[in-house]
Amino acid sequence: MSQKIYVGNLGYSIDDSALSEKFAEFGTVQSSKVIIDRDTNRSKGFAFVEMSSAIEADRAINALNGTEFGGRAMNVSEAKPMAPKSRY
């Protein structure tokens, strides 16, 4: 089963393909998505990567958390589901 990873403090010059390439060292990347600000069309400095298994995800988290990429030390952890938003 696939595992989603949160990548924070990401360099603003990093795009989806560079991120995917970085994480591919640790297994099969099913998807990678740098989050873009819709007003400025620039990176918000964080992303999500989906690895094909929890083992590969753990390997990537342990190896990459705190390492520099794009000029900044990344925060890499297991993605947490969003809390439901109140309708009011």
From TrEMBL:
One Pfam family here: RRM_1
Keyword line: Repeat, RNA-binding
Keyword hit for Ion transport: no
SMART domains xrefs: RRM
CDD domains per the UniProt record, alphabetical: RRM2_NsCP33_like
InterPro entries, A to Z: Euk_RNA-bind_prot (IPR050502), Nucleotide-bd_a/b_plait_sf (IPR012677), RBD_domain_sf (IPR035979), RRM2_NsCP33-like (IPR048289), RRM_dom (IPR000504)
Signal peptide boundaries: none
Record PROSITE patterns: RRM
Highest taxon in the source lineage: Bacteria
GO molecular function: mRNA binding
SUPFAM superfamilies cross-referenced by the UniProt entry: RNA-binding domain, RBD
Protein name: RNA-binding protein
UniProt organism field: Bacteriovorax stolpii
